[in-house]
Amino acid sequence: MATPTTAIELSLVLPASPEALVRARSAVRDLESDLHGRASEVELLVSELVTNALRHPDCHTNSVTLEIACERELLRVEVTDGGFGFDPPSAPEAGELATSGWGLALLDNLAVGWGVRAEPHTTVWFEMELPPAEAERLAA
After folding, report:
1. Is residue 1 part of a domain?
2. pTM score, two decimals?
3. How many CB atoms lie within 10 A of CB 27?
4. Fewer Cβ neighbours under 10 Å: the N or C end of the chain?
5. How many domains, the chain?
6. Domain span at residue 73?
7. Is 45 part of any domain?
8. Would residue 96 count as lying in a domain?
9. Would you state the pLDDT for residue 52?
């Protein structure tokens, strides 16, 4: 069996400032043609994770790292900050009228998988499937 070829690979170290959000969204938009129909969802989830990394770090952090990779039909995104991790709720949800708290609920609904690693800093990751036709084109 052949080893899958990575068709998308991006790694950015962003300043721990509002500029991080602007640059992260721009990076996803630059990949729009490669994300075939999933760019808006990826941008939304990246925005949520970067915002959370900026809003909830457990310690002072100077940067946030965004990594995006795709192998065949599986897109993986990781956002890392200087925090010490957190225990995700078993069933994340925001109240119907809530103006914040939607990030983990969105991950639960839009991603095929997501999780948190806390070694040595907090990394929140998610995976999404790309449409099969697009995955075949990227792998070619």
Report:
1. no
2. 0.79
3. 17
4. N
5. 1
6. 6-139
7. yes
8. yes
9. 86
pLDDT of residue 113: 94
Q: 23, 14 in Cβ contact below 8 A?
A: yes
The 3 state secondary structure assigned to 55-119 is HCCCCCCCEEEEEEEEECCEEEEEEEECCCCCCCCCCCCCCCCCCCCCHHHHHHHHCCEEEEEEC
User: What CATH number has the domain bearing residue 75?
Assistant: 3.30.565.10
Rg of the chain in Å (alpha carbons): 15
The H or E element spanning position 31 is none
> Is 22 among the domain residues?
yes
Rounded Cα distance, 5 and 34, in Å? 14
List all residues 6 or more positions away from 131 whose beta carbon is below 8 Å from its beta carbon: 36, 37, 38, 73
pLDDT, averaged per 10 consecutive residues of the chain (140 residues), comes to 58 92 95 88 94 75 90 90 66 52 80 88 91 58
